[in-house]
Design brief:
Length: 243
Amino acid sequence: MYALTKWLPLAPNLQELEVTMSFDRFDAYTAGPNDRIWKAAARGTTETPHFVLPTLRTLSAWAALIRNFTCPALERYVMEKFTRHDKYLTDYLEFVKRSGAPPSFRTLEIRSSENSPVLGYFLSTITNLLITSPDKSIFTVFSERSQGDGVLGFVILPALEYLEITNCRDDCLPHLSSLVTSRWDICIAHRTLKSLKLIQCFASSPVPELLLSPPTGGIDLTQVGDNWREIARCVNEGLLLSI
């Protein structure tokens, strides 16, 4: 936090910030003698600073640090992984509230989701979700439907429009297909999913080229393997798929 206290006041118009608890990033750009000085100062710091970043759009911060920020213009929050500590979830929810629950905050990115998801992070206002190395349980959670006032929807991320998945294992393909069709096969008036992006996914069964560049007359589903056929149907009906 010592380094942030020194540098953030010099960047009043900062739009993107990534900060961790490690010294590694700073070490790479610091001369040896100065390095020892600032580390000593960091150890001696007793006050916890708070930073109001009025123009920040993207914040990537370890869960333990988010309590130190207020970001009224936030659009995207990046978390390294799910943490099951209740305090960190509370800090996250208070951070969003303290920032004024900005309507621009619609994107959540999880860089490692091999652990079971902590549902409290998925605010109902989130429309864009980016996940790396998802666990199978993720797909089940996002497929769960709800019905309130006679309207069929979804329990988690009811407004999800854009889903981006990176580094997904081959055995997760059936679960992804179930998730996509669950989100797609709903009353058109309440359908929110618009776009799916897959990055470095399914090495043994890559996305068929037909789905990425569908012909004008639509995809002939008989030409698509069973494992991609349902997603191909959704593409035929308007889902945008990319890699």
